[in-house]
Amino acid sequence: MNAERGTRNAEFALEQPHSAGAPSTLIPRSAFPVPTSGNWLRGARIAPIAVPMGLGVCEFGPEIGPYALDAGLRDRTAATPSGWPGAGRLEPLTITDVPPSLPSPLYGDPRLKNREPILTACKRLARYTQAAIADGRLALALGGDHALSIGSIAGAAATCERLGILWIDTHADLNTPETTPSGNIHGMPMALALGHGNRALATIAGAAPKVRPEDVTMIGLRDLDAGEEAFLARHPVRVYRMAQIDALGGFAATVARAIDELAASGVDAVHLSFDLDVLDPSCFTATSTPVPGGLIVREALAGLRLLRESTLPIRSVDWVELNPLLDTRGASTGVAVRLLKGLLGDD
Ligand SMILES: [Mn+2]
């Protein structure tokens, strides 16, 4: 499906003046009233947006992730449908058209691998995210690698005055072209959201930065590069590393604290970015960068339930870094779907 050939609606006209066409049928306007407050994890329509992209990690596999997640949410791959109550709020899948990568080593600047196709895909995702939120629907970006957050955060930031970000991840993703050990852009989206790094990527859908450092909370960090440690030493991002999570009484207790802090911060919308590599390799193996010492399924589920039950104004979610090619028996995909169902509806 090629989203660019689709027709468009008014929101798209604001964001894409170079593309003429008729209204989009990919994100049909909802007949439901637009909720203007509250937590959209509960009750709001859900707009799943596939981002079939592995360009940010330079691997094959992540581009299949969105289809595995969407099929799981809809019980298409289950022998016995679960009857998950959130299914009734799921809208049709929107698919972000991701350009192909150039073959290595022609992917461009080795410190910003695949920048051009990632920039194009993230501009599209930003439009879809903005349109979904403007229409009162939870924008659910299904990855795909974590570079997609460049687009989803840009789209979310365009819909509010002051965005808060809850970043649940093993990594801080705070690298810039100057600090990156790999050149992989999936290690950069949080730095870009804060206005650091490649200017074209940082200014999708409007000026940089998208978020203030004091409005960012990171939970689960346990594998940081030297440049990221230096970044955190200079910027007031709230960080809960795994060691601190244990000291605070676990993941759920830490999430509860982060919810209170974000609620008191004055942000008027919250973006949740969940990198599945935060899970422990004993229960989730199908990711490009597994690191021992992660969350187990039960505690992750408990924390995600707290987010669903909170009063945070959560409008958009990233669910990233599932690589089904590494999931020979489907167990990791099952975990990724189960946690997402827990976040979005009773289970
Ligand atoms: Mn990440």
From TrEMBL:
Ranges for region Disordered: 1-27
PROSITE patterns, per database record: ARGINASE_2
UniProt EC number: 3.5.3.1
Known pathway: Nitrogen metabolism; urea cycle; L-ornithine and urea from L-arginine: step 1/1
Record's keyword terms, sorted: Arginine metabolism, Hydrolase, Manganese, Metal-binding
Cofactors required: Mn(2+)
GO molecular function, one term: arginase activity
Name of the protein in question: Arginase
Organism: uncultured Thermomicrobiales bacterium
